[in-house]
Amino acid sequence: MSPDEAGATRARTLALRDVTEVDRERWQNLSRRALEPNPFLDPRYLLTAHRMLDGLDDIRLVIVEDGDEWIAVTPLSALGRFAKTPLRYASTAGAYLGRRASLCVPLIDAASPQRAIAATLAHLSSRASRLPGLVELTLLPADGPVSATLRSECARVGVPVQERSRFARAFADATSPVHAPEHLSSARRKRLRRLRSGLEREVGPLEFTDHGSDMAALETLLDLEAAGWKGERRTAQRKKPAELAWFLDFIAQFGASGDFRVLTLRSAEYVIFTSLVLVIDGHAFGTMDAYDERFAAFSPGVLGRVLEQQRLMADATITTFDPCMHPRYVDATALYPDRREMVSVLLAAHGASRVLLRARPWAQRMRARFAGIRRGAR
């Protein structure tokens, strides 16, 4: 363990397999106090996956403790050589989280973010962390308080930090002046009304319902997913027994605290669209959705996602909704009124990684300059 400057906090590196019940409870308490909630780093999600699935043994938790409380958790996996360098690196985007987490912002205690991040950096900078000196933190909200505090603390203690990538994805913020579908063009809003009217002529009056943490409603969602193209390709949850067992287990744990919602668009006879949203401290995160493909001519996925937003943004307990949607889905992204910039950053915590990171911008400029010279010579 390594102490922070004041000696009031301690940091350590902990393998998932070594997490005790006391650790789990402290981790769960931190998840509820986090400066930026992240369901994909919640122990109900991550520890359950480790217990029931393969591919998580490489994850190490960098923990900061203050007495009997955890005040920071950062999951890292030691990977191979970074880019074309001889240096190994650690990343939040390891074998599992790199594929299965739509958000990787560390859990940081909202009451003491500077102290928590400073102690994390101090631990990563020491050999006691047993992690490579070059650290990649992926899928951080660029405008979030964790990113801001991380950058300020890195500057204060002299840890080089460099942005590696950035992109914008769909988002909905309750404080925004415009909500869906009002941000859409008048032509597109008219088309939505026409699609709903046509669908109602086909199946009867439609109703959109928030079922809360209802496991029976979740089963309906799983049935609908399995009945469509994902079922045919055997990628639906019901077609993967081990994944289904994990999924139902972790969702039931969220449900015990009322931390998931199933939302459904249906007629008297048909379930047209249904979605699953995880909710922590007023922040909602899209997890999965499905629609009845027999009614594809009426764009039920589009209708459902717009109604989902409307319902969530009308709820006074919800402050933001992140559908966790990749921006390559351009048409679906356009249904959301706001955007959130996501960044990945590199930290040079110790050793030769500091030389590499300081030299990297210069090397990139030189490569770009020489590439321009070669193009001009052709």
From TrEMBL:
Tell me where in this chain the BioF2-like acetyltransferase domain is found.
187-309
InterPro entries reported for this sequence? BioF2-like_GNAT_dom
Q: What Pfam families does the annotation carry?
A: Acetyltransf_6
This protein's name: BioF2-like acetyltransferase domain-containing protein
